[in-house]
Amino acid sequence: MHADISRDTFRPERRYSAVIAQQGRVQLDADANEQAAIQLAQARTVAADLIGQHGGPRDATGFAVGFVPGSRELDDLTIGGGRYYVDGILLDASRPEPGVPVVDDEPGKPAAEDDEGQDGDGAPAPAASEPPAGWTYWDQPDAYRDPERPGDRLPAHFPYLAYLKVWERSVTAAEDPLLREVALGSALPDTAARIKVVWQVLPLPGAELELETADGSPQSQDEVRAAFARWVAAQAPTARMAARSRRPEHADDEPCLVKPDARYRGPENQMYRVEIHEGGTAKEATFKWSRENGSVTFAVDELDGTWVELASLGSDDKLDLNVGDLVEFTDTGAIGRGETLPLLRVEEVDLPGRRVRLSGEPERHIGRRPELHPFLRRWDHRPVSRHTGSGGTGGSGRTKQGAGRTRGGALRIEEGGWLPLEDGVHVYFEPGKTYRSGDFWTVAARTATGDVEWPTDAARRPLLRSPHGIGTHYAPLAWVLSESAVTDLRLAFGPLAVPVPAASEAELAAERAAEEETVAAERAAADAAARPADDGTDAATEAPGSEEQPGN
Fold this sequence. Notes:
alpha+beta; single chain; six-stranded antiparallel beta sheet; 5 helices; six-stranded antiparallel beta barrel; 24% strand; globular
């Protein structure tokens, strides 16, 4: 997640069940975030254990897929409302109810509709259309399908699979202005970010499922589910990375801002983010990095060629834009589609006009729709020589390091060796792996220790780790065989609670007999307590000759 956090302390393998706040202690963002992560992981684990890999409640199962053929228009799919769970993650396909506007009846303005149901010209007002109950393939909220793009259209040949792709992403005030508290003023940064669950219904041609039947027509739903499971397993990236800090060669030439023996030489605590830009093999993949976890963003007000007008240029010299900075011009649509966009260089900064000039014009479909909230995201790497470790400084005055080979503004991945980022921070990519765009690792660097926080073995060797994110989840929905044949692949579950069953006649008779025995025993005990004492014992003691005579 691209958020301004100090570090990520959630470790599932440590089995923590809660975070305990202590009196008189500093409250950190990492503690609150870990508590939320613990609760979320527990809830989703319980849901997945009870439901399985995917499924929906029996009477409210969502994501029912139907085929809508297009005569003059493009083919479409209907997506039914309701709820569904994928790996314990709750999804809701219910379409929000439209709001009811207030009728404008201010004096001097023509009424939109009079009391007799007519508009301002005296003609009958058009009847309000009923809002759709669900979504369609083309208007689903977070997929951003574009009919003008051939790759977004449904497959032209049957059969194909309609499946769910689920993932999560962070949202800040740059993408959702309603998150910003305007009472704090525009000079202050935004407050908390949000995590959003994104679901997308996408098609997969049947030829890619490697079904055993020659014509691609499965014999059962289980065959399609099994083939889809194999396809999902093949999508998982295999990349692993490690990080370490090492005292740079030029450390003796710098002012002693940190401990002389420190390996991490940065003057401030940082949360480095190493993110895959273009995916593929090592020859194809590139990466980018940020010392602020990729959280430095600037909302775009207007785009004019290569000039970009921003809502703000940043709150200080650490979180602003300077000539030479690399930025990613994107919006919520491009993020939802998972597009890889070229990184652009800031060539000029116009402070009074809150404008920057970029090295190139952004993609034609990016930044032209204000409702998609376009913004710039700053990245901190520089294309300099990795052997000399030099190459100038950026706007913050920090010495930059990094691999020299670039493509599209991002750094090429070089496997099997330690790559310097800056200030003694190095990363290592395991050889022979594949990479997926958007996957990332985070590395916390601390001035107090002069080191980075990264797991090591007993010999203090850095351990290889899979990406921290993005976690992607899948579920099959429907097998579209033809225009009139759609096989439902969803699963449903019923509620665990059931009515208490009525007792049988034998159980009722045994219960009555037990009650009668209890009552009889209680009566017998009461009768025994109320019966007079037995006089036989006293008579025996008073019988003649029974008393002892004195002198005997």
